[in-house]
Amino acid sequence: xxxxxxxxxxxxxxxxxxxxxxxxxxxxxxxxxxxxxxxxxxxxxxxxxxxxxxxxxxxxxxxxxxxxxxxxx
Length: 73
Hints:
Elements lengths: L1 E4 L9 H5 L4 E4 L3 E4 L8 H10 L5 E4 L1 H8 L3
Antiparallel strand pairs: 1-4, 2-3
């Protein structure tokens, strides 16, 4: 799966860090670091993080959809 965080939208509320601490972390007070390609087995955790984001900055999709998007289809 692919994960993208709109860092212009992210306000560092850190709700994703609480929802999926193995995939999201804050370095300092505002610098979000995240796993861009977590395993599909972690889908529920990633989706919980996306739903927890109050500004909806997190987008997650399956690898096959990401491949189609990269191909411009």
